[in-house]
TrEMBL record:
Residue ranges of domain Dihydroneopterin aldolase/epimerase in the record: 4-114
Pfam family, one: FolB
Keywords: Folate biosynthesis, Lyase
Alphabetized PANTHER family for the sequence: DIHYDRONEOPTERIN ALDOLASE 1-RELATED
Origin superkingdom: Bacteria
Record flagged with keyword Lyase: yes
Reaction catalysis annotation: 7,8-dihydroneopterin = 6-hydroxymethyl-7,8-dihydropterin + glycolaldehyde
Transmembrane segments: none
Name by which UniProt lists this protein: dihydroneopterin aldolase
Classification of source organism: Bacteria, Pseudomonadati, Pseudomonadota, Betaproteobacteria, Neisseriales
Sequence similarity: Belongs to the DHNA family.
UniProt EC number: 4.1.2.25
Top EC class for this record: lyase
Length: 118
């Protein structure tokens, strides 16, 4: 299985259970691992035969700006669903991090894995 990975992708969204968290969008960090639907791009060297990660990141940022989530789990699941359904990935692992949200905790996050690894 061939996997594209993106680490430290920053996006803004309304996230959190507490009122003070939902006053303004917060920056979240995404680490993404995305299985390619095929190995075709390895042979053709053609961008059309793979997942265009620039388009993916742009799309995710727009999605998250328009969405509101209470939990990181729901946010991560939504991202995984978008990657699988709109970018035809058979498998993905999505980690969502809220940096600096807790006192003396550098990063809080969740990881979800969706689909089948081949």
């Amino acid at each position: 299985m061939d996997i594209i990975f993106l680490q430290g992708v920053r996006a803004r969204t309304l996230i959190g259970c507490y009122d003070w968290e939902r006053v303004a969008p917060q920056v979240v960090e995404l680490d993404l691992e995305i299985a390619l639907p095929s190995t075709r791009a390895c042979h053709t060297d053609n961008l059309n035969d793979t997942i265009n990660y620039d388009q993916l990141v742009t799309h995710l940022r727009k999605e998250l700006e328009a969405q509101h989530f209470l939990l990181l789990e729901a946010l991560a699941d939504h991202i995984a669903k978008v990657i699988r359904e709109q970018f035809c990935a058979p498998w993905t692992r999505v980690s969502v991090i809220k940096p600096g949200i807790l006192h003396e905790v550098t990063r809080v996050g969740v990881t979800v894995e969706r689909g089948q690894r081949s």
